[in-house]
Amino acid sequence: AKDGEGDGFVEFVTEARTEEPVREPVAEPEPEPVAEPEVVPVDEPVTAAAVQEEEAAAVAVVASEVDSHDAGELAKDKAHWLYFTVPEKPRAGEDCVVYFNRMSSTVLRERPSIKMILSFNGWEMSSHPHQLSPTSTPKDKYNDWWSCRVAVSKDAYEMNFVFHDDDGNFDNNGGQDYVNPVAGAMTLAKWQASAEEREARLEEDRKLKAAEDAARAEKQKVAEAEAEDRNQA
Q: What angle do CA 119, 91, 113 make, to 5 degrees?
């Protein structure tokens, strides 16, 4: 307001007050949850007894399958197969049965006798002949199953075999031979790694056999000399 024109005056100024905004309380951040330490399961140590128990169970299963399988049932859907084994993957150190379908072999289809030469681990182990016999499974123009029971080497990782007759006719998979995997502790890598050890063992066996043969020959020589002395007396 002004009091009088041209005179001194007093001016009253009313200052406008600005109210400060009301600040909302700021919530403090919640602490991040601490992750629980991950619990890693610890496998129980495998004991020798547990291994033996597992091995015994596996052996029992194989023995049961070999002794009690139904050949006719197994061969039912295998008319165009040349062979199969029971069990499907033979186990090292145990028996298995090899089935051969004569009607699937161009070479041996009409042959009256079927044999098999069996070895293991790429033919690096001793081979053995086996005679196959006709089975009682149904026969037709696609099926004529023969079989034999064989022992699988305890050191085998695979079976190697060919089929043949008595006249020198061979079914050998076109020169590739037949190969069937074997279940067990031995592997190709382990077999190859033990080559030097096996060769040393074979050499030792050869020397031992040579010594035994020499001793036998010497004993025979002494016996013959003694017999000649008795005759001359």
A: 45
